[in-house]
Design brief:
The complex is a heterodimer of chains A (353) and B (225). With 353 residues, chain A is an alpha+beta fold. Chain A has twelve helices and nine strands. In chain A, strands 2-3-7-4-6-5 form a six-stranded mixed beta barrel. The two termini of chain A are 31 Å apart. Chain B is α/β, with parallel strands linked by helices and 225 residues long. Chain B has six helices and ten strands. In chain B, the strands form two sheets. A six-stranded mixed beta sheet of chain B has the order 6-7-8-3-9-10. A four-stranded antiparallel beta sheet of chain B has the order 2-1-4-5. Chain B is globular. The chains are: A alpha+beta (353), B alpha/beta (225). At the A-B interface, helix 1 and helix 9 of A face helix 1, helix 2 and helix 3 of B.
């Protein structure tokens, strides 16, 4: 066992302040990441529910489905393109859902194709409902919701998770969507907004075959959403600053530790230690501290997200936790390596006299 | 060939516009198994000479050879390796690693420079602790040892890698006269038994008689003792 690890075990209290500081920073990173992912996912459920299919929108919509209006005949034309297996319509409109005295904002979604998440479109007069709507209006399968300004009644046929778009979603067949959308905005004829295309077809080839239309993947459409990108960049900035603070905390701690140990390091150099042995020892200590902080911090962070009220959009994504863990460890080791210059300057001759 | 040969070694330090000569063209050699006592008043250059002989500093001019190795030719890791493998240091303030046991302090010398602790190293540490009268104290950390015991652990650490040269800086300064003499007698015995060359810097007249030869240093130069 190395000298550095022995010191860590036998003088653990010495390292407790930096462990506590790093653990709290990891908790902050986990919670911030959960907010980032939660906000992003709560805005993009309708799109993500389409899986790896392509989306076709009107060219002037700038990849914003809400601004898109498909020309008549688009669906039939898409179905003729080589490689296209299935084509369906996808449209949304913001409205309200009421049950008894409870009224809440919802997004009404019209669709044609089942996906990995969504069942096949329900029969006319029925709706598939986002699970989080049940918490807001106390509705169960078989109950009736009144949708839109005219209170169009729809029976709940199923619930699905993780399909929010800012508000809970209510999913109906496109024909029902067209009827209800006409009541939401009586001055405008409702038109399907996007086409969902399944099959083995290249987006560029599809776009070339369909002049005047934009073709994009789900990820590309999400990336073009101003709200999502602004939220994402804001949180990424905060997370980045937190990592910088982590780096500074670790670097400052190990610099102070090095200053405290100048005499000891001079002795170790005098009896044959190389600078890299001393720096490697600090890096090992930083690595162990960081790993402990990551384990404890992630556990506490997840625990904290479970205590947050359910209406806050917090989602813990394993990939995000992995990034936090790896980045924290890397940042900690880099912080410890910040002592290199100071250790280089320690004169072994100071061990004598 | 002497274990250590110092030939016209000079060490100067800048001091404003002036230059301080800490070691002034010193000639000195120490043979294997010889225990040399280096005495002199404070500021006479004893410690500086010790740092030059120990490859802890480089001389401004002159030559310092450890066996056939010219120390001035060594840099970086090579100097570290010479200090680790061929020189043993006993420091004035002992300077043991405080969180390691006595045995681990000896074994730590083997770990420096990327070495491994094998059975040979463990046997060597146990043997040294036994020889130094610390057979039952190997598991104690420095805070659990008396001043004399700590100094003996430091001697064991210096001998751990079987050095060619032992450099000892004021080993009795923190000990009472009886304990101080015991420690130097122990050093004397180890030098005799292992045939290692040793230089001991001291102010303590009560132990100088234990050396084979006494050299006095005044104002950076050696004078007759």
């Amino acid at each position: 066992m190395s000298i550095a690890v022995r010191e860590l075990r036998r003088r653990f209290g010495q390292f407790l302040p930096v462990l506590v500081a790093m653990t709290l920073l990891v908790v902050l990173l986990v919670v911030l990441g959960a907010f980032l992912d939660g906000l992003s996912m709560s805005q993009t459920g309708v799109l993500r529910a389409q899986g790896d299919r392509l989306l076709v929108l009107s060219e002037d919509a700038d990849l914003a489905p809400a601004r898109s209006r498909l020309p008549d005949g688009t669906i039939n034309a898409l179905a003729q393109v080589d490689g296209v297996d299935e084509v369906g319509r996808l449209s949304t409109v913001a409205t309200t859902a009421a049950r008894d005295q409870d009224i809440t904002d919802v997004v009404l979604v019209g669709y044609d194709l089942a996906t990995g998440i969504l069942p096949a479109p329900p029969a006319s007069g029925e709706a598939v409902v986002a699970a989080n709507l049940a918490d807001l209006v106390d509705v169960e399968v078989g109950d009736t919701l009144a949708i839109g300004p005219n209170g169009q009644e729809l029976a709940v046929s199923a619930f699905v998770d993780d399909v929010s778009q800012g508000s809970p979603t209510v999913w109906v067949a496109t024909a029902d969507w067209l009827d209800i959308a006409a009541t939401v905005n009586p001055t405008e004829r409702p038109v399907p907004q996007a086409a969902v295309v399944a099959g083995d077809v290249d987006p560029d080839d599809l776009a070339a075959a369909m002049g005047g239309l934009a073709v994009a993947t789900v990820d590309e459409v999400i990336a073009a959403d101003d709200v999502v990108t602004q939220q994402s960049s804001t949180f990424q900035g905060i997370i980045g600053v937190t990592f910088v603070v982590t780096l500074l905390v670790v670097a400052l701690f190990f610099v102070l530790l090095t200053i405290e140990r100048i005499r000891l390091y001079a002795v170790l150099k005098a009896i044959g230690a190389r600078t890299r042995d001393l720096v490697a020892g600090l890096a090992v200590q930083a690595l162990v501290i960081a790993l402990l902080a990551v384990v404890v911090g992630i556990a506490l962070g997840i625990g904290l997200t479970l205590l947050v009220p359910p209406d806050l959009p917090l989602v813990v994504v394993p990939a995000r936790l992995a990034v936090v863990a790896v980045a924290t460890v890397v940042v900690a080791v880099l912080g410890a390596l910040g002592t290199l210059r100071r250790i280089l300057r320690i004169d072994p001759a100071d061990a004598i006299g | 060939m002497p274990a250590l040969t110092i030939d016209k070694a000079r060490k100067e330090f800048p001091s404003g516009d002036d230059t301080i000569v800490a070691v002034d063209d010193v000639d000195l050699s120490v043979d294997d198994g010889e225990f040399l006592v280096l005495e002199g008043p404070s500021g006479s250059g004893k410690t500086t000479l010790l740092t030059l002989a120990g490859a802890l500093a480089t001389s401004t001019s002159g030559s310092i050879r450890l066996g056939d190795v010219e120390l001035a030719d060594l840099e970086g890791n090579d100097r570290s390796a010479v200090r680790r493998d061929r020189i043993g240091f006993v420091f004035q303030s002992v300077n043991l690693i405080p969180f390691l046991s006595a045995r681990e302090n000896l074994l730590a010398v083997r770990q420096l420079g990327g070495g491994r602790i094998d059975d040979d190293a463990r046997d060597r540490a146990d043997e040294l602790l036994e020889d130094l009268g610390l057979g039952g104290r190997g598991g104690n950390v420095p805070d659990e040892l008396s001043g004399g015991q700590r100094q003996r652990v430091a001697i064991g650490r210096a001998l751990m890698n079987d050095p060619d040269l032992l450099l000892v800086d004021e080993p009795t300064s923190a000990l009472d006269s009886e304990l101080g003499r015991q420690v130097v007698e122990l050093l004397r015995d180890e030098v005799d038994r292992r045939g290692v060359a040793a230089i001991m810097v001291t102010h303590d007249d009560r132990v100088t008689d234990l050396g084979d030869r006494i050299v006095r240093m005044v104002d950076g130069a050696l004078v007759d003792a």
